[in-house]
């Protein structure tokens, strides 16, 4: 542990980790607190959920990443509150004092006031979510193979993905490829190629943050993969048997939630009113009104760009904010000149749809199709955190590309699973 | 599905799967039933438990393995009984008729009449056991880092492995290497090199099935890795705080059970008295006394060699028995000449201890040390079921060998884990 000002960072996602690393040469002591022991490369989490990658390919122990950073320590624990008067972070049975606090707790799923849907339509935020979703998807095929009633069988082979943003598009494409290619010849009673994969989006088009021509391309590419796409179609009800759309019932064995996003309980901790999506409004220096030593970054923050538009909840924003807040802290302790206001440098956006289909948008430069798909794959391998993961992911992808197979088709669950 | 005699195989471990594959050209229809969707390469399961490999490296969907075998189908389901009068296997909500039944359900842990120890000292038989054990081991270090009381911290850093057979020796070596090498520099408050790893064996020496000189070597090699070895020391009590040995209390945060083995509920299903270890005594053709169409193979069977000694519960026995029982079935339907009595061809035995330390025993040929270790590694990669897994395991091992790191140091658990 270094000496100097105590900086506490809650959350070791893209934002928290980049803040910690950017403080490595500052005369401070950094404490990183996370509920998990690992940093997760969330952009590839859907590939764990669809049996293409293993959890260890996209997650690394936080303390391993910060091993050589001598002014940093890592604590695995759940934060239950923040005492901004005494400047302490409250854990279950311990308090950690700070001079500067960086809250980078990310986001969770939002069900728009229907939290009771969560059990029927789980979302995808962490490794347990992903292996549980993998279990549900693979088990639906197993149950269908055992089912003798035709209607029940078709219900089991119907997969609904709610939300047409990047995650929903990626999930829909991956589930379709899993059913129609990887599993195609493995069953005797059912034909997985007859599985229905339905992507439902309330808004007018898929991939709303992208230009309209790329949205239209994504929709065509998904249809080619056998995905039924419904845009302008809000979900009005979820239950154990399926979903209701406006004016239609879809019986489905598996419903996947890729729609709303809501920030973690930071607003509660600080006693500050959140916005509609549960985020904390921050100022141009990522500070919180009325608080001097606390900052919020990443998906937990509502941060506006120069035009007053909210910044998107993507890794690039969180990373830049993490580095920025490190600069602010260094300035406050007299270690550096103060930076100007935070400005997001748009790093572009990518989304993949399926085999040889993706979209890339760098503002003036945009492209799609196989070139975009290769670009997406290489960029994601590059962004993985170490050489082992890069080799492993490259190997798994190459294998899937050549064989159409998925390497991690495991249903893992406790022995006393109900319904066994 | 093929036509012909219906053969049902319960369990897709080494025995059941080899029986299924050996029937691929027989005029029968084969149904393989397993509670899991995957075949597991159990000899490397301890490497998942100690964060070296991922589950998908050593487990493959059963139906993927049998994809091309047209006379075979796979059902994922839990068997609850066998009706030998009507010749039906009973599942939760279905019955499957058979002409021939092969019971290959393997073994589970035995606590010698102390089943209440199971919760404190879990064993290692499936993927969920392994990721749960990985969680316990890694979390012990995380809790120790947070712990301020010296005695409690030392307790958290004490790991007891019960049972000095191959699994116990492998686990002890792997936990010691994890603590003393992979984690060595990742903590700030604790020094994982001070973790105690204690291997407890009730019998007079480690690796009892091996020659005495190899046992002695294993004990020396473990001590060099920093493992405390206690032989001739039965465990008399287990609780949440540790274990009692004869005359000594060991406070330990993690206790791992690698001792007894008991067969699955086959005896109950058949209404046949089991032996002391829960196995069904089978005759020289793997048949059960009083039953004509049912066979038991692998760890679930008590099968005697020519000298009247029970065959060991190892993969090679199960595989040979699986192939043998397929021959018997083919003979019974007139497809082949009947084989002689079952004879186990000893395939030798291997056990690894740690980095560059292993023992190999082929009867007349035996060796140990780095050569045995390389032999062990190459043999295990060779036995993995497909090219992807071989490449992936080779990559992970090479990485660990060069960096001393472990690639799968993940604590995965539901968000609402108690104690969070």
Structural class of chain A: alpha/beta
Give the rounded overall mean pLDDT of chain A.
93
Oligomer: homodimer
CATH fold-level assignment of the largest domain in chain A = FAD/NAD(P)-binding domain
What can be said about the biggest beta sheet of chain A? 5 strands, parallel
Determine the most extensive contact between two protein chains: A-B, 58 and 58 residues
Distance between the termini of chain A: 50 Å
CATH architecture of the largest domain in chain A: 3-Layer(bba) Sandwich
* Domain tally of chain A: 2
* C-alpha geometry of chain A: globular
Uncertain segments of chain A: 416-420
CATH class of the largest domain in chain A: Alpha Beta
Could you tell me the number of beta strands of chain A?
24
How are strands sequenced across the largest beta sheet of chain A?
Answer: 5-2-1-9-20
Radius of gyration of chain A: 22 Å
Please bin the fraction of helical residues of chain A. Answer: 25-40%
The CATH H-level superfamily of the largest domain in chain A is: FAD/NAD(P)-binding domain
What report would you give on this structure?
The structure is a homodimer of 420-residue chains. Chain A is of the alpha/beta class and 420 residues long. In chain A, the strands form eight sheets. Chain A has a five-stranded parallel β-sheet, with helices on one face. In chain A, helix 1 (14-22) runs parallel beside helix 9 (315-332). The N and C termini of chain A lie far apart (50 Å). Helices cover 31% and strands 25% of the residues of chain A. Chain A folds into two domains: 5-106 and 264-332, FAD/NAD(P)-binding domain, CATH 3.50.50; 111-259, FAD/NAD(P)-binding domain. The model of chain A is unreliable at 416-420 (pLDDT under 50).
